[in-house]
Q: What sequence folds into this?
């Protein structure tokens, strides 16, 4: 595991007025804990608020937070009080924080709900929902749901892409730090050296690939073996690796690389979130997945393709199109249609080569749009800011 010093905590902590309990269950993958951990750090570092994070699977959590000891039931990491949440915890003596967040509808233990209802000052109770760009989100964001039995109200807080949603998480000063990093060739070289990877050459494509299993990845990697420019593909160890190995013709593990034709694949170890950001910032194009890496690719200001978390009945394709219709506003028609075709091919698992060839022709426009996009999203503040404002409105 690698860890670089965290260097984008730009704001001074403010007087701690709110305290937070965040409850998170790890369903599969790293997205739920990835978002919960990021929210905890945003509230603690940029707002100076005390945060307790209750997590049921510390082993998965430790993959993205290497300083964490999975065997310890209570520990302070990065100024966050992390508690192991056992299914049968009695929560005897539990005193709720001023705000209690259940991440992604994870059900709170009955004892916690009882303690919230019985507290002298009842906490504000938030269900932080999954990210979607669909229109209905605006109507549901902020909705209140009274508890069927206890004197408690739960509020639904929806991340999103418009001013009438909860926005997207972004630390204070992140965009400026990223811009400085992208100008700093020495820092980038040192970063790649940590993985024994040569610095990026001007006449090279450097592409990160974080995805679920995907036959379209095989098509694209195969195509890149015949690319006129060398392609260096950075693959964090994980689900897509089997597709990568099939193209390279050999098993690969973290720290190894393999070349076929113009394509060189480097398999990266899982790093902490800050180092993964640096990977995104240092590549020309990023393939990302799920929820959190998808958001971070947007802050990277570089072109990206999203592998959305697959759902039954292709519900995810509706979400993909909802996002694309937001994202493609302000792009010329040719780039928009190439981006839509490539996103569909990637998520359907086929037709990627033809789609990619179209998209390659639009690279300058795609780049330009990626640079401008974060400003639009952050005009009304990020999710952390909107959440704190929302809570303060409930307290008035
Ligand atoms: C590759 C890499 C990722 N990460 C982090 C970034 C993110 O916080 C996290 C990955 O989360 P995501 O990008 O969201 O992809 P994911 O596929 O892991 O998570 C998904 O999990 C499902 C259960 C959810 O329903 C999905 O919505 C989605 O969140 O891992 C690192 O910290 N280091 C790394 O090296």
A:
């Amino acid at each position: 595991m690698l860890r670089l010093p965290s260097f984008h905590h730009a704001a001074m902590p403010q007087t701690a007025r709110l305290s937070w309990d965040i409850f998170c269950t790890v369903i599969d993958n790293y997205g739920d804990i990835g978002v919960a951990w990021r929210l905890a750090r945003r509230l603690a570092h940029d707002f100076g608020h005390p945060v307790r994070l209750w997590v049921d699977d510390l082993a998965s959590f430790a993959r993205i937070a290497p300083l964490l000891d999975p065997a310890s039931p209570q520990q302070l990491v990065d100024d966050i009080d992390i508690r192991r949440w056992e299914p049968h915890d009695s929560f005897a003596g539990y005193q709720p924080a001023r705000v209690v967040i259940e991440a992604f509808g994870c059900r709170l233990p009955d004892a916690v709900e009882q303690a919230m209802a019985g507290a002298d000052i009842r906490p504000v109770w938030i269900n932080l929902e999954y990210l979607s760009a669909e229109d209905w989100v605006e109507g549901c964001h902020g909705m209140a749901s009274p508890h069927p039995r206890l004197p408690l109200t739960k509020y639904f807080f929806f991340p999103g892409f418009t001013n009438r949603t909860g926005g997207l998480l972004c630390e204070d000063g992140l965009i400026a730090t990223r811009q400085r990093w992208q100008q700093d060739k020495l820092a980038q070289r040192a970063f790649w050296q940590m993985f024994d990877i040569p610095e990026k050459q001007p006449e090279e494509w450097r592409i990160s690939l974080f995805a679920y299993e995907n036959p379209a990845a095989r098509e694209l990697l195969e195509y890149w073996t015949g690319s006129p420019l060398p392609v260096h593909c950075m693959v964090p160890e994980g689900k897509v690796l089997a597709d990568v190995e099939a193209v390279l013709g050999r098993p690969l593990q973290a720290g190894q690389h393999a070349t076929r034709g113009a394509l060189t694949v480097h398999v990266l170890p899982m790093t902490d979130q800050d180092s993964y950001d640096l990977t995104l910032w240092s590549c020309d194009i990023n393939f990302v997945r799920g929820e959190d890496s998808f958001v971070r690719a947007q802050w990277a200001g570089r072109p990206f393709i999203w592998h959305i978390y697959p759902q039954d009945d292709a519900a995810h394709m509706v979400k993909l199109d909802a996002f694309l219709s937001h994202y493609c506003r302000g792009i010329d028609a040719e780039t928009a249609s190439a981006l839509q075709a490539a996103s569909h091919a990637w998520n359907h698992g086929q037709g990627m080569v033809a789609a990619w060839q179209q998209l390659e022709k639009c690279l300058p426009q795609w780049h330009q749009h990626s640079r401008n996009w974060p400003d639009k999203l952050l005009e009304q503040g990020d999710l952390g800011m909107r959440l704190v404002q929302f809570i303060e409105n409930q307290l008035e």
